[in-house]
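Quick one: structure tokens for this chain, please?
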Amino acid sequence: MPLPDQTRLQETLTTAIEDFGVPGATLLLWDGAGFAEASAGVCNIETKVPVTPDTLFQIGSITKLYTAALCLQLVEEGKLKLDAPVRETLPDFALGDEDTAARVTLRHLLSHTSGLDGDFFKDAGRGEDRIAKYVGLLKDVRQIHPLGHMFSYCNAGFVVAGRMVEAASSMGWDKAIRTRLAKPLGTPSFSTLPEQAMRYQTAIGHLGVPGSLIVTPIAYLAQSNAPAGSMPMARARDVLAFARMMMNKGRAPDGTQILLPESIAAMHGFTAACPKGMNIDAIGLASFMWDWDGDGTYETFGHDGSTIGQAAWLRYHPESGAAFVLLTNGGNGKGMADKLMAEYFPALGHIAPPPMPQADPSLDYAADPLLGRYGKASGTIDISQKDGKLVAHHAPSAEFAALQGVYDVELSPAAPGLFVGVPPGYTRPVTYHFLEEDRFGRARYLHHGVRAHPRIDE
């Protein structure tokens, strides 16, 4: 099926940002041979500057794919090893748990299986040594699960990986990503610092729920967390160039070999499963992986990104060559991404994302083992019972107050150990997995927001 008509695509996106309360967005569709692109809305609700295809958005954790690619380049060159202890590259590396610090590898970091509490967002400054300083602050950060025990999203691990890139390449992470990826990919507008981004039109994030949005008072997360996605900004076409390289055996659109096919296979290779029913099926090396057709293999790849008031989505399907990129700056972007992906991906890749798990009120469950407080650096989730329903009370830590407010979500059972609920102001259900048992028969972990939250009400 051909790409959608440009006028129709523009109308669809314009309607979507209105329906989901998104200030501005760019949507790009690639069918393996060409693309269709549309932009709508504004970069900033106060200035009302229109979004164009050349507008830069913060891509958030899509950056993790770039950091992983840098690591794999250095593995190809023999300067890094996936399965060697991090301390072979960073001799002074320290964590709150000495055994983990001594044994954790680059593979653990890139697959989110280190167990490190990854939402440690301390600002280590803006100097050239900011990433090294941040890694030095991890010496007191605790584990939320044993090394290699499960998948739990870990931003801090990718900052450590970024520091390993610096040590192995003898250049700063910003320079490495510009010279090793952005330039050979032909994406000079890809920016890792504000002074680079200011050469272009940029979008600002918006906080709050649709109908009551404000411009975020904090434009960027800490620069020291850049390898995990705190800073980079890009056009949708820039992100597409990376996806095309990943689908083309590591070659850039102009034929430049960015990664060897073996490195692409490593990024797309299974390392850890996610709880069944989560919005990700499995993890490779940085890559999110999905089995959309249910045949037992992972055929769709990509990543999501979220910063202060901005969110981004990338999906690509190597078999068909199809790709989907959506960049937004606030509102219910998740709901909009679900709608647009379901509408356009089947025509592009002849494959469709499955629906989210649905509530099944007929399911019986024992509430007592689930009740209690779960938490990590980002905050706490208290599970209580009210009028026969489970309720999740979310409260951010002080460091996360700018990213997330206090709110409650009513939970409904969807499968044994799995509950779903819709956060205030959104339309997309989110999942709550209660995993394992402690010595009292209670759930040991609450896996939510792609993160494991250990029980802390011992």
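The longest helix spans residues 333-349.
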